[in-house]
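Hi R.,

As promised on Friday, here is the backbone we talked about, encoded as structure tokens. Could you run it through your design pipeline when you get a chance and send me back a sequence?
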């Protein structure tokens, strides 16, 4: 007997036998729902036989038969009513468990988010993406989908989405392109480190989404509920359906603040801040200016995260401010890193270590933040160092900059587009999906092993645009992405270590070393970060002007 738990209230299973009833009783089940019609299989006990054995064991029973492949709306309503009325936990069964899982999914459509339903059933071994439209429609079969259709649909209006839309329109102005994104505001997130360091104003890092959508591109202001790649369809909240010839997926990452106990309740108060949020980055600078003595914690969660250097950038700029105002000797800086190295590309570590020494910062590796008590100003870390027993430590703080854990968005993780870890599954060179050849992905949400930075998206967007246009013309991929990413590490006000690298940590400098040696702190790199990169982002990258981002062509071997 195979039991597949959906949640604490319901488990589904394939056909059960009469002899299974005592085992189910012993496992704590109090009710059974049979969703398999009698006589469907030659060796199948009737529901009356199951019910008789259930009564002997003191279990309640409901018979809600559903013909395979024909789950009706009223069946789901009846299943939901049975779940509410029967004592739980409940076991529901059919031939394989799929009908029972489908009935549950539809019955919960108005009570739970789509991603929670798809995630619970996926974890139990059942793929419910085939009924995603009905779930999005409140568990009812849609009668009017109101489909829209575009040559290219782009999910996500961040750096990657707007850039690839602009690059596509620059190549083929006649393409019908749509961007799907519910946000009103588009943020220049790389600027938030500078906001937290007192260099940029927060409002300079935000523009209205409508002002940035490229001319001729449709903006569908909605959230995505699910994907139907077999039908070339994206399902929106409210069950609207958008069809496509080609799809680009780039919605960015989910910042999982709730994964750290007590964090959400204290963010923006009690000395707890983060440059990973627009509204909190100014609070970082406020805390830095106000701290004259005490302990400052800077945390970094397990990878992957966007802009892997951002947690230590906050530490360096804060340390520099304390160095300049004379408070550094009275501030205990502690870098709490869930990983085991300061930076993943070793060539940049010596320069960074000089600043760790300058600011007298303590490096605490394998320390992962798991809880915060804001009013008490205490943080709890899980410590999992190699060759030692796992433990937890509690650290008091006066100020704490938190980098939150990060995952793919829920609607991506439960979709057919995701790999086993929840990321969009692409070829790391062409950025084309490994299973659906009319889907591409870029930015933070795909599974290529590159750093998740805006600079990476700047290189990826033209690659995706080139390959989509080639596909439209009936050609194979013509451009490849080499894993390029850039992390301007703000080690002090006025100097930056400009880390640029590709797949495998290979150095990928954009400038000759006599202009900028990325392995050393540089004023030229600071000028690039402060003065050049913001206008390049707003006026070039998001406009399809591929400054220093021309796609690398795929080399075809001679015949």
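Update: got your reply. Pasting your designed sequence below so it's all in one thread:
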């Amino acid at each position: 007997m195979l039991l597949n738990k959906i949640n604490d209230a319901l488990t589904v299973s394939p056909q059960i036998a009469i002899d299974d009833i005592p085992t189910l009783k012993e496992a704590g089940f109090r009710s059974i729902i049979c969703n398999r019609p009698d006589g469907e299989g030659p060796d199948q006990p009737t529901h009356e036989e199951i019910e008789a054995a259930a009564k002997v064991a003191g279990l309640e029973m409901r018979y809600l038969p559903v013909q395979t492949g024909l789950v009706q709306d009223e069946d789901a309503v009846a299943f939901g009513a049975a779940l509410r009325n029967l004592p739980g936990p409940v076991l529901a069964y059919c031939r394989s468990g799929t009908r029972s899982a489908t009935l549950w999914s539809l019955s919960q459509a108005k009570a739970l988010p789509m991603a929670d339903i798809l995630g619970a059933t996926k974890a139990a071994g059942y793929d419910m993406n085939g009924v995603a439209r009905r779930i999005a429609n409140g568990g009812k079969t849609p009668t009017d989908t109101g489909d829209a259709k575009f040559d290219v649909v782009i999910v996500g209006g961040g750096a990657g989405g707007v850039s690839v839309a602009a690059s596509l329109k620059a190549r083929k102005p006649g393409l019908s392109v749509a961007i799907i994104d519910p946000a009103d505001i588009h943020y220049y997130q790389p600027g938030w480190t500078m906001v937290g360091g007192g260099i940029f104003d927060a409002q300079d890092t935000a523009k209205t989404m409508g002002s940035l959508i490229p001319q001729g591109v449709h903006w569908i202001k909605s959230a995505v509920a699910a994907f139907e790649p077999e039908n070339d369809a994206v399902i929106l909240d409210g069950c609207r359906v958008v069809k496509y010839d080609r799809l680009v997926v780039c919605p960015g990452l989910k910042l999982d603040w709730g994964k750290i106990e007590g964090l959400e309740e204290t963010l923006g108060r009690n000395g707890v801040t983060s440059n990973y949020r627009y509204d909190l980055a100014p609070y970082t600078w406020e805390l830095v200016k106000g701290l004259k003595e005490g302990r400052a914690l800077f945390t970094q969660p397990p990878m992957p995260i966007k802009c892997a250097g951002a947690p230590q950038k906050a530490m360096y700029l804060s340390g520099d401010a304390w160095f300049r105002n004379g408070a550094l000797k009275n501030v205990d800086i502690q870098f709490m890193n869930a990983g085991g190295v300061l930076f993943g590309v070793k060539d940049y570590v010596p320069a960074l270590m000089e600043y760790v020494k300058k600011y007298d910062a303590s490096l605490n590796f394998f320390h992962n933040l798991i809880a915060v008590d804001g009013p008490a100003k205490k943080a709890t870390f899980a410590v999992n160092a190699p060759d030692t027993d796992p433990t937890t430590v509690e650290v008091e703080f006066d100020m704490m900059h938190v980098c939150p854990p990060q995952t793919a968005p829920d609607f991506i993780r439960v979709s057919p587009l995701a790999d086993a870890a929840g990321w969009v599954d692409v070829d790391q060179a062409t950025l084309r999906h490994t299973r659906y050849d009319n889907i591409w992905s870029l930015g933070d949400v795909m599974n290529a092993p590159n750093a998740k930075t805006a600079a990476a998206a700047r290189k990826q967007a033209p690659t995706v645009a080139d390959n989509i246009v080639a596909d439209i013309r009936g050609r194979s991929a013509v451009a490849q992405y080499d894993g390029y990413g850039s992390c301007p590490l703000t080690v002090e006000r006025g100097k930056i270590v400009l880390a640029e690298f590709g797949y495998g940590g290979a150095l990928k400098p954009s400038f000759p070393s006599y202009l900028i040696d990325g392995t050393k702190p540089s004023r030229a790199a600071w000028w690039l970060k402060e003065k050049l990169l913001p206008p390049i982002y707003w006026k070039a990258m998001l406009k399809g002007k591929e400054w220093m981002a021309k796609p690398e062509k795929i080399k075809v071997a001679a015949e």
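One thing I noticed while checking it: Residues 338 and 367 are 5 Å apart (CA to CA).

Thanks again,
M.
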